[in-house]
Amino acid sequence: xxxxxxxxxxxxxxxxxxxxxxxxxxxxxxxxxxxxxxxxxxxxxxxxxxxxxxxxxxxxxxxxxxxxxxxxxxxxxxxxxxxxxxxxxxxxxxxxxxxxxxxxxxxxxxxxxxxxxxxxxxxxxxxxxxxxxxxxxxxxxxxxxxxxxxxxxxxxxxxxxxxxxxxxxxxx
Length: 172
Hints:
By secondary structure, this protein is mostly helical. The chain folds into two domains: 1-105, no CATH class; 106-155, no CATH class. Helix content is 60%, strand content 6%. It is built from seven helices and three strands; from the N terminus they run αααααββαβα. A three-stranded antiparallel β-sheet has the order 1-2-3. The radius of gyration is 17 Å and the shape is globular. Residues 158-169 have low confidence and may be disordered.
């Protein structure tokens, strides 16, 4: 989690206000989260991404930029505090990207489909036996996260895809 916390701190520093630089910061942060998670999962810093990983990264960035463009249109009418809070949400969104690449094949990731959105502080714990536990945030959790935890444990749905991606990486 130290890697993720460092990425979040760096992203938060770069995403302070709307503008062209923030669009680039969003893309850069998600890319860094992808590479860091793959390195943590495989033990190897990837020289590049597989086609599936590139497509997933592009989709995640495009989703964030869709929301960001609406935010940028409204930012002039918002207080400085509201702009800062909203910008922070874009930095926090890299948690989802990181978690998805760290443990691909799980049914959902922090912030996906939750009321807490990018403020989600829940996480996956690898139980070491092929199962994963949805760990609730120690301070608070939304209804969706509570429901997810009540269905523990979970397992990776697409082990073959993860293995194939790791094989592709080893060949490059």
